[in-house]
Design goal:
With 222 residues, the protein is an alpha+beta fold. It folds into two domains: 46 residues; 173 residues, Galactose-binding domain-like (Jelly Rolls), CATH 2.60.120.260. It is 15% helix and 36% strand.
Length: 222
């Protein structure tokens, strides 16, 4: 066994980057939701880069609250989130979790960290292909492109780390359900923890091995 090669491989491969580009688009790998109106309105439609498809919750009062959870596929420093609505949530929050077990928003909402709160959203432009709302988590700003006038928006700054992104709608802006064409995000991948190897231990191991060999040789000669 060549210890030198093992040490080199461990150190060089200990850092794994999913996407090191600053501000790169994050390719989400999955989405789940509290409900779907039908099989044609699944949560994965909100991450398929197709403005002609959408996720929609069930309709009516029973759809409050509704949520959609996005799996980013890895841990990211979240920089921006954009939403292209079909039917808006009048009041909603964006939340994040870095817990790999993805805590259930229905049974364990407290496990999620709120990074944005929006109130008073009205019916936005539908199917425009242009994001209705943009959240910038680097400087904590919010841009409303829908022209409907959000009452208030409180946005966290500092690019928080997240594996999962949750949109949690508490009330609708229409008689229909919560409905989204696309949710997109950008950010930088957070490196996985590196494996630290103490070279001094390897040196001590090699020295001890040489001494043992010397002693064995001496014993044989005697």
């Amino acid at each position: 066994m060549n210890l030198g090669k093992i040490l080199f491989a461990t150190v060089s491969s200990g850092l794994i980057l999913i996407n090191s580009a600053m501000g790169a688009a994050i390719s989400a790998v999955g989405a789940t939701a509290s409900s779907s109106y039908s099989s044609g309105f699944l949560p994965t439609n909100a991450i398929d880069s197709n403005n002609g498809s959408r996720w929609s919750s069930i309709v009516g009062p029973s759809s409050d609250p509704s949520w959609i959870m996005i799996d980013l596929g890895g841990l990211y420093s979240l920089e921006t989130v954009t939403i292209d609505w079909e039917r808006a949530s009048r009041d909603y929050t964006l939340r994040i979790s870095s817990d790999l077990s993805a805590p259930s928003p229905t049974t364990n909402l407290a496990a999620w960290t709120t990074i944005a709160t929006v109130t008073g959203q009205n019916e936005p432009n539908q199917g425009s292909g242009t994001p209705d709302e943009t959240f910038n988590f680097i400087n904590g700003t919010f841009t409303d492109n829908s022209g409907t006038g959000v009452t208030s928006a409180d946005v966290t700054s500092g690019a928080p780390s997240a594996r999962y992104l949750l949109l949690y709608g508490t009330s609708r802006s229409s008689i229909y359900g919560h409905s989204i064409y696309e949710i997109k995000s950008t950010g930088s991948a957070v490196p996985e923890p590196t494996t630290t190897v103490l070279v001094v231990l390897a040196t001590a191991w090699a020295t001890t091995r040489r001494r043992n060999r010397t002693n064995d040789t001496t014993s044989t000669l005697c």
